[in-house]
């Protein structure tokens, strides 16, 4: 599981031809997907008009289109926008309360040592080509993901999947890792007999929908699987169009889509027949704070990166920064009120810790800096032992909201004598500084895996470069629990156990800012089923339960 930053900007750039299309361009794009419309196909097909009452047209951002197609062994479902794969079934899934429920599995269990997970499967499931789905297909999918260089999920803890019979599969782990269940909840099962080159363009699955058509760079059309083993989808046809933001707004204005993503900068607009809807998220914005002094290097994938920062390596500075952020002001000034304060990567999740919460207190921030010897200079910027309290805050230059957040933070940090300069750049530029300068990231997932990735000593998201054996032990212990509920205490102890933790009262490795609401313009009459909290990134998570949507 990776965060959106890894590949999103490249996709947006590559598909930028849609940008600025305007209403006429949006209408032209959609003309090929109207069903039951009037002559010329100009009538909105998802508006509940005759012949189209079970179709919906969804406008997603251009970066949501899966570059390799609808292939779970690359990025579909388990990729940067974690979501249910729709075309393929999964062993288990999660409901709107994020509790695990069975899909292909009828039951599952874990051995006492935490190293073997056993799943019993339904015996009435077939792929859309008529072939039965068996445990061999599950084992093939898992083993192929383990061996794949393109799979974007994390199954490194699994040594092998074994089909014990047609309806029983075992997963053999190399270490206890109960968070595996969250990955299995979005890993679509592919057919062993029909998987190969080109699968992503013409996928065969056993899920709620089939891929009817894919026009690269434009749209994907899904139709209900008539042989689906579960409840028949209420929404029989789903058209997803991939658009830049201005084109999506133009499509709303022209009445050509039924629901379209938007951002807070457009929240004050209104369109006849549409309403603005907001869905809760765990889409967090925060800045990483390097904990090591400047001069080091960190190797990753054969590349060496500069590591360390002489300002943020001071614990007092990191703690002061967390107290200096006026989160409410960021939400009001940048997000137009569509968000809430963020204190961690997993606020309000069962595994989140109250010890992550910190209130605005610039007086306390100033005292921390004073006591640590950071004295105010004639230019209003603090310094200590010849080191000026100055650093860059890097952000993605193609994200206007992040630019505004970085500017807001710069102004706020100046009030305590810290010179934080906003620096926009491409992700390639940002990655070259990821271990030496604060970076404004977007994170958030419906699982605790990111807590591990960001805070474990060898975690792939440990941009703060903080290593602590006590924190690692709590995180490891969390993963050994056979019952997910029993793991929550250990995730919380990793944040703060009274002596150690990554919370502000501990190592203060991150300064979290806001959770960003996901906003959409939705056509009146479209009933969107109750949503799970959306993970980071507008995208496919919206349509996790599109089969339960309907027109009123």
TrEMBL record:
Q: Does the keyword Coiled coil apply?
A: no
Membrane spanning segments where? none
Keyword vocabulary terms for this entry: Signal, Transport
InterPro entries linked to this entry: SBP_5, SBP_5_dom, TAT_signal, TAT_signal_bac_arc
Where in the numbering of this chain does the Solute-binding protein family domain appear?
99-458
Which biological process terms from the Gene Ontology are attached to this UniProt entry? peptide transport
> Which terms does the record give in the GO molecular function aspect?
peptide transmembrane transporter activity
Protease as UniProt keyword: no
Q: PANTHER family, per this entry?
A: OLIGOPEPTIDE-BINDING PROTEIN APPA (PTHR30290:SF9), PERIPLASMIC BINDING COMPONENT OF ABC TRANSPORTER (PTHR30290)
Q: Which family does it belong to?
A: Belongs to the bacterial solute-binding protein 5 family.
Identify this protein by name. Twin-arginine translocation signal domain-containing protein
Q: Which organism is it from?
A: Enorma shizhengliae
């Amino acid at each position: 599981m990776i965060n959106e930053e890894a590949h999103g900007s490249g996709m947006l750039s590559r598909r930028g031809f849609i940008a600025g299309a305007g209403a006429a361009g949006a209408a032209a794009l959609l003309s090929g997907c109207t069903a039951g419309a009037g002559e010329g196909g100009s009538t909105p097909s998802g508006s509940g008009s005759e012949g189209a009452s079970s179709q919906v047209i969804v406008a997603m951002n251009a970066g949501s289109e899966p570059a390799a197609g609808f292939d779970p062994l690359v990025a579909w479902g388990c990729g940067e926008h974690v979501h249910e794969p729709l075309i393929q079934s999964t062993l288990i899934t999660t409901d709107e309360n994020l509790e695990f429920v069975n899909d292909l599995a009828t039951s599952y269990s874990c051995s006492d040592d935490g190293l073997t997970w056993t799943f019993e499967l339904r015996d009435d499931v077939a792929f859309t080509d008529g072939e039965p789905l068996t445990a061999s297909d599950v084992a093939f999918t898992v083993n192929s993901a383990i061996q794949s260089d393109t799979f974007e999920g994390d199954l490194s803890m699994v040594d092998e999947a074994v089909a014990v019979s047609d309806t029983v599969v075992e997963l053999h782990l190399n270490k206890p890792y109960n968070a595996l269940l969250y990955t299995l909840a979005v890993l679509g099962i592919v057919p062993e007999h029909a998987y190969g080159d080109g699968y992503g363009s013409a996928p065969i699955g056993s899920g709620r929908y089939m891929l009817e058509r894919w026009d690269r760079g434009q749209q994907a059309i899904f139709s209900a699987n008539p042989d689906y083993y579960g409840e028949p989808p209420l929404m029989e046809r789903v058209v997803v169009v991939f658009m830049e933001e201005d084109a999506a707004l133009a499509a709303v204005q022209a009445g050509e889509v039924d629901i379209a993503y938007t951002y807070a900068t457009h929240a004050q607009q209104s369109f006849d027949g549409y309403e603005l809807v907001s869905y809760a998220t765990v889409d967090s914005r925060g800045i990483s704070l390097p904990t090591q002094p400047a001069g080091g290097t960190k190797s990753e994938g054969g590349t060496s990166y500069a590591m360390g920062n002489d300002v943020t390596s001071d614990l007092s500075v990191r703690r002061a920064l967390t107290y200096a952020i006026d989160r409410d002001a960021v939400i009001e000034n940048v997000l137009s009120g569509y968000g809430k304060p963020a204190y961690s990567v997993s606020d309000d999740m069962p595994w989140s810790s109250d010890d992550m919460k910190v209130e605005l207190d610039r007086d306390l921030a100033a005292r921390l800096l004073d006591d640590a010897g950071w004295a105010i200079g004639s230019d209003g910027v603090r310094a200590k032992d010849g080191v000026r309290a100055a650093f860059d805050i890097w952000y993605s230059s193609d994200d206007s909201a992040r630019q505004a957040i970085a500017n807001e933070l710069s102004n706020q940090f100046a009030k305590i004598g810290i010179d934080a300069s906003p620096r926009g750049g491409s992700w390639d530029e940002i990655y070259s500084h990821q271990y030496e300068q604060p970076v404004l990231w977007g994170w958030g997932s419906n699982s605790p895996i990111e807590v591990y990735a960001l805070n474990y000593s060898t975690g792939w998201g440990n941009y703060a470069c903080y290593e602590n054996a006590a924190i690692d032990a709590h995180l490891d212990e969390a993963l050994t629990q056979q019952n997910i509920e029993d793991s929550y205490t250990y995730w919380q102890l990793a944040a703060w156990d009274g002596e150690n933790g990554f919370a502000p009262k501990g190592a203060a490795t991150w300064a979290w800012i806001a959770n960003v609401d996901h906003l959409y313009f939705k056509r009146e009459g479209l009933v969107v089923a109750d949503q799970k909290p959306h993970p980071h990134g507008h995208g496919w998570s919206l349509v996790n339960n599109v089969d339960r949507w309907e027109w009123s």
